[in-house]
Amino acid sequence: EKELLSFEELHADLCIVVAYGMILPERILNAPRLGCINVHGSLLPAYRGAAPIQRSLLDGCEKTGISIMQLVRKLDAGDVFVSESLPIDKKDTSGTLFDKLAKLGAQTLLKYLGPILAGTIRAIPQDENKVTYAEKITKDMSPLNFYQSATKLDLMIRGLNPWPVATATLDGVCYKIFEAVPISSGIHKHPGEILSFGKEGIEIACSDGSLMVKVLQSPGKGRVNAADFARSCPQKFEGKSFDCNCSAS
């Protein structure tokens, strides 16, 4: 109650909220003269919710963006003042995409804050028929299933980096996979089978194509170049297969 009163006594014109993750009390929303606005990491009404950046990568979207919206007592459902799009690069991770969107959000906010305060820009209601939700990312999403396509696994690796990070297990050892490249090939081997390891990395068979692992991490160790690691201990990989029974940590 004390904090609410202190906020109300500010007699603010506007409150700007970024990456808060909770629905604000009605008194907070109504205290500023123009209410509260939020910079959200998606092109609303797509990807309302906790993990819009990660989900856009996991779903293989070609673009994403930010939206500046009026905050209401419903999750990311307020009217939108402006949206700005951003292409998703094929090497983007959730970490790099977060940084790009943070910069875009700040630039867009600075550009449109004046018109919002002056009332010269009108917020547009979201199309409820186009709403999608970005569910929270959890650790149990980490294990890679090599019965999926190489393209899908690449999206998972990038979408789960830097947290919780994709994982795969080999001979009972759980490796974190930070970077890989999907390869389209006509090779049909058992999913998880190590096809090769050399200067390009560690190539693993998938249901469709193969995955060339570039950067990985052993338990209790730092990140390493997969090619160097495999060449330093070839006995770990020769004639072996990965599986996906790996618990995240």
Q: Count of helical segments?
A: 6
Query: Strand-residue fraction?
Result: 25-35%
Distance between the termini: 39 Å
Name the CATH superfamily classification of the largest domain: Formyl transferase, N-terminal domain
Count every beta strand, where a strand is a DSSP E run of 2 or more residues. 12
Calculate the mean pLDDT score and round it: 94
- What is the CATH C-level name of the largest domain? Alpha Beta
List keywords for this structure.
single chain, 249 residues, alpha+beta, Rossmann fold, Methionyl-tRNA Fmet Formyltransferase, Chain A, domain 2, six-stranded antiparallel beta sheet, four-stranded mixed beta sheet, 6 helices, 12 strands
